[in-house]
Amino acid sequence: MPVSSAPEPFPEIGTVENPATFYDGNNAFLCYEASVRAGGGNVVLKFGRAIDFRIAPINIEGLGECRYPVSPWAFNEVIGGEETGKWRSLKPRLWLISFNDIMVDVLFETVAMIYHDAAQAPPSKTLIKALKELKPRGI
């Protein structure tokens, strides 16, 4: 299956921190460190109507063992993968997002950047802050 960079212009992934995640059964949230070239800080993405969300212990050195040819520290989009086939009517997308020590697989319908700050806080603290700010708006 072809794998390409996701077309969304999200800030580039940093190479130090692993992400923080939260899945509520419908939406998945991912907070990652933005690279210094992208301005640093942390970014929170919301994957709307997440059908499947997994974290695998695949580090950068183990990417060759991945079922698809993915790039390190990148948003890799799998086009026409087996995972999307059975959900075809929903028009889902499959991303494999690689970090230092883990790979995040997410099968979803929509994606949006909901938070970006310049603070050098741990991703877990930024994710909690972003989720607290979303609650009043009902997102």
Search tags:
139 residues, mainly beta, five-stranded antiparallel sheet, four-stranded antiparallel sheet, 12% helix, globular
Describe the protein's architecture and organization.
With 139 residues, this protein is mainly beta. 12% of the residues lie in helices and 35% in strands. It has two helices and nine strands, in the order E-E-E-E-E-E-H-E-E-E-H. The strands form two sheets. It has a five-stranded antiparallel sheet, with no helix packed on it. It has a four-stranded antiparallel sheet with strand order 2-3-4-9, covered by helices on one side. Strand 7 and strand 8 (103-108) form a beta hairpin.
Please tally the helical runs, counting DSSP H or I stretches of 4 or more residues: 2
Helix/strand/pairing class, anyone?
mainly beta
Mean pLDDT: 92
Strand content: 35-45%
List segments where confidence is low: pLDDT < 50 over at least 5 consecutive residues.
none
In short:
The chain is mainly beta and 139 residues long. It contains 2 helices and 9 strands. Strands 1-6-7-8-5 form a 5-stranded antiparallel beta sheet, with no helix packed on it. It has a 4-stranded antiparallel beta sheet with strand order 2-3-4-9, with helices on one face.
List strands and helices in order, with pairings.
Layout: E1 3-5, E2 20-23, E3 28-33, E4 42-48, E5 52-56, E6 75-78, H1 82-85, E7 93-98, E8 103-108, E9 110-117, H2 123-134
Antiparallel strand pairs: 1-6, 2-3, 3-4, 4-9, 5-8, 6-7, 7-8
